[in-house]
Amino acid sequence: MLTIKANLRIRQKKSATRRLRKQNKCPAIIYRKDNEQSLSIILNQNDISHPDSVAQLYKNNLILLFIENKEPIIVKVQEIQYHPFKLKPIHIDFIRI
To answer: For residue 30, what are the CA distances in angstroms to 84, 85, 86, 92?
Structure first.
């Protein structure tokens, strides 16, 4: 199982997202079951761009997310959006298991 560290994302505007990407970070969201509130997070680009991580993201394996001193969350990738020509992820949608 792939483990990734994440931080909570407070600012969710377009300008804040651009600043994150310039800092080598990737915005993401965790959708929850039963119409609960979704959770916006920030991932480090280096953690998800590693060849082993990319392979596991594509295989739709379960991923263990550690978010800022909270208990780990088990998620699965729902969708990954990539930059058109750089082929690096610019946004990831997770679904909570």
So the answer is: 23, 26, 24, 9
